[in-house]
Hints:
The chain has 715 residues and is α/β, with parallel strands linked by helices.
Amino acid sequence: MGFYEDIAVRRGDSAELQACIGDTIAKLRHQETSSSKPGILLGKIQSGKTRAYLGVIGLAFDQGYDVAVILTKGTKSLAKQTLKRVREDFRPFLQSDTVQVFDIMSLPDNLTRYELNQKIILVVKKEDDNLRRLLNAFQTQYPVLREKRVLIIDDEADVASLSFRRRQGQVDVGVISHQVDQVRGLVQESGFLQVTATPYSLYLQPDEEVIRNGASLFKPKRPAFTVILPIHSGYVGGDYYFEKSIDPTSPACCFFEPVPIAERDALKVADGRRLNIENVLTDANSAVLVRAVTNFITAGTIRRMQQVDARRTPEKYSFLFHTESSRQSHDWQERVASRINQDLIDAARHEEAIFDTLVRNAYLDLKRSIEIAGINMPAFGDVRREVKQALVDGHLMITKVNSDSEIEALLDEDGQLRLRTPLNLFIGGQILDRGITITNLIGFYYGRNPKRFQQDTVLQHSRMYGSRPQEDLPVTRFYAPPHVYQIMRNIHEFDAALREAFLGGTHDQGVYFIQRDAADRLVPCSPNKLLFSKLTTIRPGRRVVLRDFQTVAKTVGRRLLQDLDRRIETLCGGAVGTTVQIGTHDAVSIVRLCYQLLEFDDPEDEQGKAQTAILEHFSQKAEALNERGKVWLVTAVNRDVARHRPGGRFSDAPDTKQQADEAGAHATNIPVLMLLRQEGEVGRGWRDLPFWWPVVVTPRNSVTSVFASETAQIP
């Protein structure tokens, strides 16, 4: 039995995964790869990429490769976790002396010929010292390795390991990539495979710009090949958390709860003026955190009750509190969380009213999503009793984690955070987001607010991605400031669009990256300057809808509304409600007038800029000359959509199905602008001022585009 056959049987690999691994090795054997033209294994966050590439290594050994080098992210904990995974999968071969596994920093100086003749796996962190040690191993320490067939696996291949960096405005070869190329230059034969969950990284490499129709079109760096990792049936990712979350018939509609900025700031550092820890259960600036902790305790208790009823062993559950990177913040957050726990215990023991109120609110919140999922909900009295018992018996354990040494002490034999009690709350910073697996995560309080959101970093923060039991989803909750959640949604949509292009084979058409210049013109934007907080991904045939706004006061907007009504009627030829074709300039002008009747909660809201950019960009990209510079206009009146949907979220469906179908039928080669006149009544959440709600639909026959209303300055 070969290496991979044995591994596949022991792990129970699916036929789809085995086929993916076989396809990867076949391509590695027959196509030349390098760091500038790698093979790509494209998966999703927490989707089993490690399992896949370890299978690739096993099959590579079967196919004549002798050495595998695994490049991991630069933390001791992740390197240790990777070593554990490697040793577990290759355990029989370690015991039979057919495979040797080493951390490169612990590579012995006295390996014998007997050991060097075995298959060798080296785990190497992507940092200078590790890579210098790797280069020395091939160059000086064990020159016999140069005669071996070597497979290099670049795990989590994101921006940090791309083949370039900018220095004084010039593209230069990155240190890590250069060192890897030096190793490859020493050996007779090698293969290079990047394992990534972010196809965006392929657009950040040199030679990415071509000209089409007078505009810059960015194409991904052509890999030698791309293999798509199959997603197992239990995988839960951004499509659930950010797409199904707007569906009121899905449990995901209850997933997100906003955190006020004042609360996030109050949790940065101890300050009695912001948060009085003595009254933590009732202080306004800890209200969401208190609700989050109570929900977690209640949710974990309900799941354990359901498992007991099903005659299953109760699981242990986890909650991640991740808002800051500084240790000072973690110390304060540990004090706050511990005080919440202790005050809840005291309130439960003494049957205080606040205990009953908090548990009842948590129960009602969870009941809604559990019943949407069609799962049995225990009675409140039973849940209240079990929550009290859980608190009194110390089921909630709070653990602060902010260093590699602390993480190592907390990892179990599988390299995952050890859950010591039924309910585990982890407080930490970056160390918790670098590939560390957190089992049964059903609560995530997230507030990181970096100056520049990087796609790979934020996706790695999304620890709720991965293989999840379907029964856990209805009780899973995510707490974050609204703008942070929106940025995560932006990143998901961007990632999904690029992934969709790869899966559909349309990535060869490229992706337009565009922005506005100082003269308000649409101009090309370099992909490596993207600010994800200022990003809109524009996919073919999709609706772009304004949300999260209010109308201006009636006295302010009455005259403008009258002017707007007249202009729209004129554009429609006097027949509002019909579909007509108008010039792009007229469309943009009328939409900007619509915005003057609206106020956004965030003064820097970029939704309007994105809509006008879509109209201008796609109308100019029409192939037919008679359509270029044109937009379809669909209008409707007497609409009466409420500002909020049931449950409290902002409405985002101002059009009926009939109107949406009408727009979709016309959005073939040029965009469609829908203008839907709302009554704007006070009883529906507005300010008693009618207004026109614009919706833009992108043409189906178009290329995926990315609009950045603001870009970063790259030195």
